[in-house]
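Running this now, will post back.
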Amino acid sequence: MTPRDITRTVPFWLIFGASALGAMTNAASTPIIPVYVGEVLGGGASLSGFIIALAALSSILAMPLAGSLADRRGYRTVALVGGSMAVVALVLLATVPQLWAAGASRLIFGLGNSAAMTLIMAWLVALAPPGQRGKALSIYGLSVWMGVALGPQLGTFVNQLWGPASVFAVCAVIEVITVSLIMGLPRPTLITPRDVTTPPRGVRNLLGAFRAVWVPGVVAAAAWCGEGLILAFLIIHLQGVGVPATGLLGAASVFGVFAVSVIGARLVLATMPDRIGPLRSTAISLSALFAGLTTLAFAQDFWVAAAGAALMGVGFSPLYPSLTMLATRGLPAENRAMGLGLFSSFTSVGYAGGALVGGFVIGFASSMWAFLLVAGLQLVALAVVTIFTRDETPRSTLDAEEPRDPAA
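Update: finished.
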């Protein structure tokens, strides 16, 4: 009997909603950090980049650790703890206007939010029938870009009305809703006896997962370096050339163009990784990201910036499912959450790198050079994935694996 379409079930849309809201809290709060640092803490671009990067740096540890714990303890508990930590972090940032609190908040937010989001993705992979995982991941990926589109608009709007602290307070409320959606997910069936009786092999499992995911991970790091840069400094970059922060043709609206282009391209290119293979699809994505970041570097008005954002959206559209397909080829089912967490940690390396590079380069040169530098990283990533990856089959071996439900 044909399995029920996972995308037509309530659990899928609970996962989709939790992912969208989790992405929204990050996308709404991150662009406000430079404003908060400048107006409240009295710092500059370098300090802003460092504080933004703290969340990404802590998530590098949190993602594989959360995956490892979830493989043994179950997804629900770890995801709920992670979401609760994100709430505490945002409340701290909203209520204590001190440098130490900002640093601590970003570290805790990175640990909690990334753990919850990693397990939400792994939960979807575990619940989806093997033949539906590519489709489920493609549609699920839209949730992230919805959050990226709406978050900066929400953050800049609330900031103009009530200030940076109010943005963080609103994000805390959104994170509470995220936790409630995770609580509403159905309790999965019990894991197999082999999963219960076989002790974890620790370092061996970690090394095996690293070998499976390092190449797509390096590519993800380069690509998400671009996302980290635009989330942290695109508004400042465009304000420097006379584009207002808000309004229909304001800098914040460029994020909307970015997200809409991702969604539109995803609808058109959803089957591209299956048709031409994840390696070729990744190469096309990186080329589009290079073109988009270069265009943003030289943008002098909203329309050119929107064109650059649209190119980046087209690039990111097939990149997530393509890299996930490449990353999961060598991962056994009993080690999948750890592997996906380790792969996701590479995105955090890139995200942190984008904020750090942006703050450092802007501090001594200009934002244009920051965008050009990160654009060049896309070409480096293209060389790495081309040299070290064989596109053995146009479909991921993930679809051939037997599914395994996570522990409750």
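DSSP finds 15 helices and no strands in the chain. More later if anyone needs it.
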